[in-house]
């Protein structure tokens, strides 16, 4: 019965989407703001109406660990398919017993492999700066691209100032690589006409207004401690504590906080990240159901955005009714709905 219901739901979703696509195409002929012509094959995955949609009201396929060679040959190749990239970053060259270098982060998935283990192709050794430079190189070649979102999953705590891997060092690296392309808390605050960093509801520019921009989101903090304390209730977990150490000075910070949450109760966490907590990361566990995430995402706390991973057995089409923003897949190339993997969220499907 569950399989039948899912099949019927997919048929209904597809039918409505086809109808909506035809209507949107007709409306776009009369929409003077609908000006952007997709550049390159990569933008053919984007539903045309998504360009004129506020960024926090868009749902898109994201890649899960696509810096790994098993998932993508290069980051540039991944960007031809999706515009949301994840990089796992480590402070030390080997798990927690190795050493690190000032202003340097390693990019790999496994704590046991050591050093860098990724597909970053810029001349260098595959460090975080090299991976970011790959993304920037692609951006330079596609200057009017759909906004790129980079999720940095931090696996270790910040170092001391002397060791040179503090939030300020990360600010400097991002500014060095991307320059004025960065769209961070300062820019979002200015867009909201001088309101506080987290007003009652955060308004976002449209994707068209953000074309050519890069949005960076930091999550994680300590692989060992986080894994251990995540076994306890959310208010006893150390998840996100390292994010709270980031300087909330808008003159400096150029990335958003993306705290992990595992249930709705964690949203009003005691961790004080209101300075830039505009994103949330959540796992999609086998015990979860789409209605749960429908309720979860419909709340859209103050305009914040939601990224979910671990849902590879769930099709992207099934997620369109949930109002999620980023659906992270290992097999990101195959996830499309009517040939598109970026859509405006679909309020027609929301449960009242």
Tell me the layout of helices and strands.
Layout: H1 2-28, E1 58-63, H2 75-79, E2 84-90, E3 106-107, H3 128-141, E4 148-154, H4 167-178, H5 185-191, E5 214-220, H6 223-229, E6 256-257, E7 279-283, H7 290-298, E8 305-309, H8 316-319, E9 326-329, E10 342-344
Parallel strand pairs: 1-9, 2-4, 4-5, 5-6, 7-8, 8-9
Antiparallel strand pairs: 1-10, 2-3
Task: Give a short summary of the structure.
The chain is an alpha/beta fold.
Q: What this model shows, in words?
A:
- Residues 11-19, 21-40, 233-237 and 348-352 have low confidence and may be disordered.
- Helix 7 (290-298) links the parallel strand 7 (279-283) and strand 8.
- The protein has helices spanning 2-28, 75-79, 128-141, 167-178, 185-191, 223-229, 290-298, 316-319; strands at 58-63, 84-90, 106-107, 148-154, 214-220, 256-257, 279-283, 305-309, 326-329, 342-344.
- Helices cover 24% and strands 14% of the residues.
- The chain contains eight helices and ten strands.
- Helix 3 (128-141) packs parallel to helix 4 (167-178).
- The strands form two sheets. Strands 7-8-9-1-10 form a five-stranded mixed beta sheet, with no helix packed on it. A five-stranded mixed beta sheet has the order 3-2-4-5-6.
- The chain has 352 residues and is an alpha/beta fold.
């Amino acid at each position: 019965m569950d399989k039948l219901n899912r099949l019927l739901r997919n048929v209904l979703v597809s039918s409505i989407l086809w109808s909506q696509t035809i209507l949107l195409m007709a409306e776009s002929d009369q929409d003077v703001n609908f000006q952007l012509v997709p550049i390159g094959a990569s933008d053919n995955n984007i539903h045309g109406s998504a360009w004129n949609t506020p960024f926090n009201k868009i749902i898109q396929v994201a890649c899960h660990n696509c810096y790994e060679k098993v998932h993508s040959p290069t980051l540039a190749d991944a960007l031809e398919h999706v515009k949301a990239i994840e990089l796992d970053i480590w402070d030390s060259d080997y798990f927690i017993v190795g050493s690190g270098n000032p202003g340097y982060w390693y990019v790999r998935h496994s704590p046991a492999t050591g050093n860098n283990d990724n597909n970053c192709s810029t001349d260098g050794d595959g460090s975080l700066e090299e991976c970011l430079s790959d993304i920037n190189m692609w951006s330079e070649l596609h200057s009017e691209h759909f906004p790129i979102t980079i999720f940095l999953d931090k696996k270790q705590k910040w170092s001391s100032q002397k060791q040179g891997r503090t939030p300020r060092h990360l600010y400097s690296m991002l500014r060095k690589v991307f320059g004025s392309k960065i769209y961070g808390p300062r820019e979002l605050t200015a867009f909201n006409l001088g309101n506080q960093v987290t007003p009652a509801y955060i308004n976002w520019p449209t994707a068209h207004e953000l074309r050519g921009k890069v949005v960076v989101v930091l999550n994680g903090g300590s692989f060992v401690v986080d894994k251990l304390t995540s076994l306890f209730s959310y208010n006893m977990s150390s998840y996100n504590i390292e994010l709270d150490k980031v300087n909330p000075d808008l003159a400096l910070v150029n990335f958003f906080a993306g705290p992990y949450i595992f249930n709705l109760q964690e949203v009003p966490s005691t961790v004080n990240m209101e300075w830039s907590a505009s994103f949330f990361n959540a796992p999609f566990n086998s015990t979860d159901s789409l209605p749960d995430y429908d309720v979860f995402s419909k709340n859209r706390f103050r305009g914040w955005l939601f990224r979910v991973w671990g849902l590879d057995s769930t099709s992207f089409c099934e997620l369109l009714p949930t109002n999620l923003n980023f659906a992270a897949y290992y097999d990101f190339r195959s996830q499309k709905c009517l040939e598109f993997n970026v859509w405006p969220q679909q309020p027609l499907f929301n449960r009242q």
